[in-house]
Amino acid sequence: MGVWEKNNDMVCVFCKSMPDSHNHLFFECDFPGKIWNEMKNLVKLDFAPNSWTDLLAYMLKKPINKSIWIILQRLVIGASIYYVWQERNLRIFQGRHRSFDEVCNLIKDTVRLRVMSLSLNTSPQVFEAASLWQFHVVQSNGRKRVQFSPWK
């Protein structure tokens, strides 16, 4: 999962000092660890585990329903994994890199675009999430739904 060194050890592309693993790549290394902590705060996953297997077990125990927080949590986890892996590949194969803010904004924008397509009944939780994620809740055909609003 990292860059092959001459001694055949896999080294993390982000810190270039630790052996690569899923746990290190997504949680332990500084760069992706900061991204994960930033994203956790946006979806009420403050106490979610910081290890690959524990996070999977934690999320599998959560109900699959239309709760805005469950939806956002699953979207954020998926987008975070995708963009950290993409950043890893950019660094390995193209020698390019993005900043912490750029990767976080890609994750946020991806989640926002997905939420834009949802039609949700309003609730205090939807209004709380809308405020945190900077969405507007608008009336549409007699039903309230979440509508996208840009960050800036």
TrEMBL record:
One of its GO terms (molecular function) is RNA-directed DNA polymerase activity. Keywords: Nucleotidyltransferase, RNA-directed DNA polymerase, Transferase. It comes from the Eukaryota. PANTHER family: DUF4283 DOMAIN-CONTAINING PROTEIN, REVERSE TRANSCRIPTASE ZINC-BINDING DOMAIN-CONTAINING PROTEIN-RELATED-RELATED. This is Reverse transcriptase domain, Reverse transcriptase zinc-binding domain protein. It comes from Artemisia annua (Sweet wormwood).
